[in-house]
């Protein structure tokens, strides 16, 4: 019998079921408090713009240190809404990494601008500042006006904002962070939400701070951007909500979701410590066989996901599956090779993004993993890699 088969036989009795993300275990912890919150909403009946929305916005602004938090209907809308405020056209360029979830590119296109794909740094897997400079020059030569750098904090690691911000200022661009995976992350002492002038966060159920449905929030220190967000999420109306002052959308968060998020946030910060502990175990035990995502000094991951790069990734993943350890591939295809976005693909290709898609593997990451389960995931990966 080989090690993979042995682990497959032992898994159930040793560690039970390992979930990739365990929302059930979390719900058990907060069920009573969430029920009370939901009943309160049923009682006051303000399903839209209820008091829980204000409470959530204030709580999250205070925790992150951002001046404004504007709740909205999804993480994608949290990116679209501030870009709509900028009133961009296809002649305006928004620079995004090629290795991210498709929502980042969709947001730029829905907001009316042109996405320009930038390659990633092969170690951090985030937008490469050097490649950004090259793409800005190319965009200008093609007649586009650089307007915004929309970097992504992939898997939870804040992008290199000091370097990206310097390039953005040199070309008169705004900076926005796609923090859909990085809530709870830090850079230079600042929490995600208060690292960049604008940050979009997602509360999709599977994100580390997740609602029980869709939700998102835009964080900003800029009063003008905050005003855009409040207006645009409510059909572009003025404060009295009587008159349209700009084009808007229905981008509101449901009060029920804010009610859930308030209880989720109350345990999020302790959960984050467990996520970090799981990550430390993975780092210590797997660094010999896989390339870990590098996290620069002064930067802390929010560990939305735990993703490493490994040889023979697909075979390793099959063997993990045989053992009963769930894994995921974020992401199999770089955006510039997806049908919807190929017209924006640079002729040069984006080699680091392309290479990463063939090597990345995401491991179970949630705060309800036991030490035994975390160790078992490591054992399973070591055995799978050896057998691959
Ligand atoms: C999840 C995600 C989004 C979109 O968030 P939704 O709430 O699903 O709209 C955007 N960008 C990244 C990087 C994401 O992971």
UniProtKB/TrEMBL annotation:
Listed Gene3D superfamilies: Aspartate Aminotransferase, domain 1, Type I PLP-dependent aspartate aminotransferase-like (Major domain)
Keywords for this protein: Aminotransferase, Pyridoxal phosphate, Transferase
Transferase recorded as keyword: yes
GO molecular-function terms, A-Z: pyridoxal phosphate binding; transaminase activity
A Pfam family assignment: DegT_DnrJ_EryC1
SUPFAM superfamilies per record: PLP-dependent transferases
One GO term (biological process): polysaccharide biosynthetic process
PANTHER family: TRANSAMINASE (PTHR30244), UDP-2-ACETAMIDO-2-DEOXY-3-OXO-D-GLUCURONATE AMINOTRANSFERASE (PTHR30244:SF42)
Family: Belongs to the DegT/DnrJ/EryC1 family.
Protein name listed in UniProt: DegT/DnrJ/EryC1/StrS family aminotransferase
Organism: Parvularcula marina
